[in-house]
Every structure is written in structure tokens, then in C-alpha cells.
Amino acid sequence: MSELGSLVQSADYKSEKHVPVIECPEKVKAGEFFEVKASLGKEIAHPNTTEHFIAWIDLFFHPDGEKYAYEVGRFEFKGHGESTKGANEGPVYCNPNVTASVKLTTSGKFHALALCNIHGLWESSKTIVVE
Ligand code: FE2
Q1: What is the pLDDT of residues 12-27, one digit of tens each?
Q2: Ramachandran angles phi, psi of 45, nearest 5°
């Protein structure tokens, strides 16, 4: 494993709040749009404060039999209670939860990578079959 790859952590999202969860159909039809959701906190909420937050989720698709993954989208979360009044006094807090509309031509695997500003990089994946 590469040096950066060795820093990416994974676990069961049901017991580890940092693991991104990918939700999409098990099977889809080629060329038809469907929704794929990437989020954190499905089972255990992650803190969302000025000091401790999820900065982004990056979603990739790796087609079966190919060497490289393709980026589907990168979603940055900027609202964490920042304010001139002080930390955690602001009016905006982002929930790290995004949905993309996607169509595929081949089966493969989605990969989600998330960054906690304190606890580093976390990943998960989900297989999808294209018929
Ligand atoms: Fe964290």
C-alpha cells in the first residue's frame, strides 16, 4: 500500500462514526439515472462544531476490470458554526450528507473518501451491478 493509502482508515459504519456510508440501488439499468447518496452519521452522529467537523466527501466509481477509478463528485462542507461572535455561534451548520444523480454503462464499485479535520481520512465502498 502507498504511503497515503496507509493513512486511509476503514471500519464498520455502525460502530465508527467517521466511516462514509454509500447508499444506492443494488442493480441499475445501463444509461438510466439513479441517485447515489454519500453521508456520515447514519448510525452514530459525528460532531459538527467549529473545532471538529467533516470537511469533505469525495465519491469515485471504479468500473469492473479497469485500472483506474473515476471521480463522481467532491462535496465540501463549509458551515461549522463559524461567526464573528465566536466559535459555534454562527448560523450555519452543514450535515455531511449529499446525493448525486448518476448513470453508468458498466458494473463496478463506488468508493467514498471522507476527511475529518481532526481524525483524518476514512473510506468505504459499495458494489453496484449494471444490467
Ligand atoms: Fe472526527
Answers
A1: 988 889 999 999 999 9
A2: -65, 135
Give yes or no for residue 117 having a pLDDT over 70.
yes
CATH code where residue 95 lies = 2.60.40.730
Active-site positions? 16-18, 46, 52, 116, 119
Domain count, the chain: 1
Indicate if the pLDDT at residue 98 is higher than 90.
yes
Distance 9 CA to ligand 1 centre (A): 12
Q: Quick one: what percent of the chain has pLDDT higher than 90?
A: 91
55 alpha carbon – ligand 1 mean position (Å): 10
Our CA angle for 73, 131, 70, nearest 5°, is 25
Which range marks the domain in which residue 62 is found?
A: 5-130
Supply the DSSP symbol for 6: G
Ligand 1 centroid to 117 CA: how many Å? 7
